[in-house]
Amino acid sequence: MEVQKGYHCAYQIHYHIVFPVKYRKALLRGEIVKSLKEIAEGIAERYGIEIERLGSDEDHVHLLCGAHPKYAPGQLVRLFKSITGRELFKRHGWLKRELWGGEFWTDGYYVATVGERGDWKAVEKYVRMQGKEPKEVQLKLW
Question: Residue 126 catalytic?
Answer without folding.
Answer: yes
